[in-house]
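Hi V.,

You were right to ask for the full record rather than a summary. Here it is.
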Amino acid sequence: MSTPTHQLNKSSLFLRNKATAKAPANIAFIKYWGKADAELNLPLTDTISMNLSACLTTTTVEFNHSFQQDKFTLNRQKLTLPSKLVNHLDRIRRLAHIKPRAKITSSNNFPAGTGIASSASGFAALTLAAAAAADLKLSALQLSALARAGSGSAARSIPTGFVVWEKGHDHASSFASSLYPPHHWHLIDVIAIVSSQEKTTTSTDGHQLASTSPYFKLRLKQLPHRIIQVGQALKTKNLQLLGETIETEAIDLHLIAMSSQPPVFYWEPATLQLIKLLPQWRSRGLPVYFTLDAGPNPHLITEAKYQVKLLNQLHQLKFINQLIVNRVGEGARLIPNPRS
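Predicted structure:
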């Protein structure tokens, strides 16, 4: 496995360093489903996404020789450190040539494990905070590749705005970069929370099952054309082209999940109930389209000028538990450390 070039903190007197980062979740227009390399989290195709302004993870990482073990607190609950986090911390320690244990304090402002890319925002924030705390000097592309090693879609949460993740062929060549800044196109993504229950089949497990679907290879053949369509839609700000393409792409992802062996069902009855309303709304002059990641909660995409009209429709639906309104968001960034 190759590693990004970087400048190392070579001080043998490394005693303590601390950094805090905030990173967004992202919604994929072209999905990451199935892996070319499971160990490196290399995708089978390029993907395109939009960072979300209102779905954020904030993470503080502190390295200290006095710590006897790595510690992890999520949303004020002390938890056993998952193996994926341990492995990622070890990866960063090896890059920085340091040994101290770490204390990680993290919080999400949105429901985790429900298909809103909490793993993406979580690993992006962890990567940036840990790299800064370890005094690693990495470029944005190197940070994206490093975040991808922890969780594939985290690569897309490092850059800003509309993002393309290039599939690459090894660790150093698979990274995400910004296609357009947030102000390029004033889209909104309203997430309709129809279920806050944590999904029973993780995205990691879903990735492993994807190739067992008889429709998996057919989707891969169609993706190059879809990527061109989404790229053209973003360039020309063509909402209909974007919307029709992302709806087809989302349906295909869930078709593959449902036809895997064993099948994976992420949708809830309310998921289908909501997305079946959208053609009616479009016929009445509200151009709104859906996409879904590996979860039950639809992301409704339209232009910001339709926000009030869309929210008026959604507020009438009693099966929706919560609405999260996102604009196109910034990428991962360092913020001042909280007071200890």
